[in-house]
Amino acid sequence: MNIRIFFTVLGLLSALCVWSQQTERRYLSGIGLGDGVTWQFYCSEGRNSGKWSKIEVPSQWELQGFGEYTYGRWYKKKGVKNPSMEEGIYRHTFRVPEDWRGKNIRLWFDGVMTDTDVIVNGVSAGETHRGGFYRFFYDITSLLKYGAANKLEVRVKKHSGNKSVNAAERKADWWLFGGIYRPVWLEAKPQTRIEHIAVDAKMDGEMRLYTELKGVKGKEKLTAALHPLGGTDVCSEVRTWEVGHDSVFAHVWKNVEPWTPEKPRLYNLIVTLRNEEGKALHRTSVRVGFRTVDFRPRDGVYLNGTKLVMKGINRHSFHPDGGRTTNKELSIQDALLIKEMNMNAVRSHYPPDEHFLDACDSLGLLYIDELAGWQNAYDTVTGSKLVKEMIARDVNHPCIVLWSNGNEGGWNMATDKLFYRYDPQRRHVIHPWADFDELDTHHYPAYLTGVGRFTNGYKVFMPTEFMHGLYDQGHGAGLEDFWARYTAHPLFAGGFLWAYSDEAVRRTDCNGILDSEDYNAPDGIVGPYREKEGSFYSVREIWSPIKIKPLQLTPSFNGRFLVENRYLFTNLKECSMRYRVLSYPSPLQSRAEGCTVDSGRVNLPALEPGETGYACIAAWENPEIREKFFSKGDVLELEAIGLDGKSVCTRTYPISFAKSYFEEQLASLKRTGKGCCVNEADSLITLCSDWVDISFRRNDATIYSVLRKKDNRIIPLKDGPLPVGMQMKLVSLSARMEQRGDAVLCARYRGGADSVVWRLRPDGLLKMDAVLLNRASGGGGFDDAFTDNAILNFGFTFSYPESECTGMRWLGRGPYRVWKNRIPGTNYGIWQKDFNNTVTGESADKLVYPEFKGYHANLYWATIQGKQNAFTVYAATDGVFFRVFTPDEPRGRQDGIRTMPDFPAGDLSFLLDIPAIRSFKPISQHGPQSQPGTIRIKKGDEGLKLELAFDFL
């Protein structure tokens, strides 16, 4: 049984079993992506044009093999006046049951791009509908043959005959599609009927019911019953009104629970129109949530009396295999992923599929519903019709807290008043990008937003777009700084990241490649098939509603730590937290992934939203727990659980720091050797052991070769250490043997480095101890060590052939790579990544995450896996960043502009500082965590140490 039939049967069963549903719906199409009905189709131009064929409805015809693909900016960029302008003709035959005679029959279209003309049995059903993102209908009661076959013809123009529609919808930064892309159905109602209901349901149970009735004589009655969803099936109460000439009915429902994004309580309101004797004439239902939304100038946006801070993202209705044809399952998946990132709000550039609004209602996401208009507006006549269509469909969704009239100049101010006319809740109307009607929605603000706006302004501030996520930029990069600054201001109402998913379409004309139109569409925090990028986890941590304050584990730790309640409506006592103490093994234990040495509950304080207090590990008073914690543990893991029982954030903290962990692992190394020696030649100095020989160049003290003796193989790590972020000149190089059998090479420098001491032990372990930034380094010349005081990368680099590498296993923060301003979201653990060459947001086939190449934080050890060789490097210095190769720049980037800061020379680098990555704005307009490091060393400073150890066995 396919999905469409299943839903039809389910609807019929519900009608028979629950109550006599007199609104009947019959789909002429499928219900979404993966469920289509075949219609006849003719395309005027492009692929498969000029002949009758077949097409699945709903769908975008480009993805069905017809016409041409066009991106909204394409024709502007290419100098072409207009994009592809195909027209399509759909034909379908359907039957209407005889018992529908005498009823009102409407033909509904949930979304068609872009101009629609409908012909039923050879007669026009009405005027052309213009606008691709809206639900509309034709009354075809008089055009039908009952109990017989009917012929439907739908003529669709991809490019509108109305210039303002093209300006608002087609000259836009998105893919331009054509076709009937949302479902089509017939709806039958009795002649005396409830035409439309709009509900204003307040948080205290007060409800005003706005009705539009047809065919009434004035003596009818309305009854309303309220059923809680997901709870008991018994209605809370029933209310009856005399219809008369009234269209607005009021009642206060008792004992209702308000709707919030944290507790999205919903009810089913069943409204019945009855005749004078009480017989049901027509019955309909609407899902409602009781909540009060109000905007307070120079204050904020309030829900149920609580000031909102919206943690939002911009989402398009999009899927690579369907274009804008989606389905309920995808809407639920997207809503759950958005909730997983601890977001509570969503915005789009047009009304989404209604099943996405349903998901927002039931899962708890605030929504800004927007009339389309990407930098250009509809004319007043067209826009007025579309405002009415949008609000008629969406008015009763409790998730909608604001209306939006266009985007970035795409608003027609003449239509603003219509939102209040059709919405009895009179939700506030915004103009995204503008400072309009006391709500400033300025896009892509800098960290310091400027005089007259947020920094020194007096308007409520809510950027409806910020932290642009092109390729690997944006979203989590610098968000921690922005969010800390913005939430400190009482006029901040939240912000919306750009954007949710990479909009790469699977091209049916190019062997199925994924095309994101170069740099125009890879803006997502998830990939086209919802693959999670690194920023997904950064945002999840930064926006966690349970915030753990900075925590450093030392012997003084008493089991208590500060937490902040960043929920809006939830007391922290309704949530929970658990801990695990983890122990991580040596890399010599190749299959070990770590073990839990202790776990248990964390006691959370009863904190109201916005309060901070102490949480405590429940069993800390037990001395055995404390002993396990410090003697056996390497990492403390804290996982916060929300009131719905789902994890909201996992944070990890080192118990064993790099030096102590390294020394413990070193003690477990069981290899022995007879001793080492030093061989000196004209150009090389070689440190030798029974296991490996390491040769260094005399002229610059860099590694020339590494020979593993047991199989006589060369480990291709060489050409280092070379300085990164500094200059250094070799002053002296000397080798010696020590009494315990170590072979030592000491290189002294002038400039940024003081010395690098290499020590080869008899067991084959090679240690590197470097002293940097010592004011007395190398006999002077420190002032010439840096070309600029601003440092992007700082440390040492080596060469290693990318072609040799097959993967990496490491202990440190992972599994995703980091930037200086995007470390949140990574956690301590043992991670494994196979080599991949993923370019974030760009792929002709599929994206593999996490990306392999890039910077990795807080290295303890890493094993570089090769086709024939492998080696392990340990860090005995805390906070070492491990750079692994250089990520490729996107091929489709704009005019060859680099999307990432420059990487160091070489292939493998060990760094004490790394660069930040920009997010739409240049780094200079980001916060302090994004700024380059500066070097200031005074006389007497000990400098910095970088201690590594290499195991080539």
Automatic annotation (TrEMBL):
Its cofactor is Ca(2+). Residues 301-508 form the Glycoside hydrolase family 2 catalytic domain. Keywords: Calcium, Glycosidase, Hydrolase. Residues 194-291 form the Glycoside hydrolase family 2 immunoglobulin-like beta-sandwich domain. It catalyses: Hydrolysis of terminal non-reducing beta-D-galactose residues in beta-D-galactosides. One of its GO terms (biological process) is lactose catabolic process. GO terms for cellular component: beta-galactosidase complex. It comes from the Bacteria. Residues 53-190 form the Glycosyl hydrolases family 2 sugar binding domain. Belongs to the glycosyl hydrolase 2 family. The keyword Hydrolase applies. Transmembrane segments: none annotated. Monomer. It comes from Bacteroides stercoris. PANTHER family: BETA-GALACTOSIDASE. GO terms for molecular function: beta-galactosidase activity; carbohydrate binding. It holds the Pfam family Glyco_hydro_2_C. It is an enzyme of class 3 (hydrolase). This is beta-galactosidase. Its EC number is 3.2.1.23.
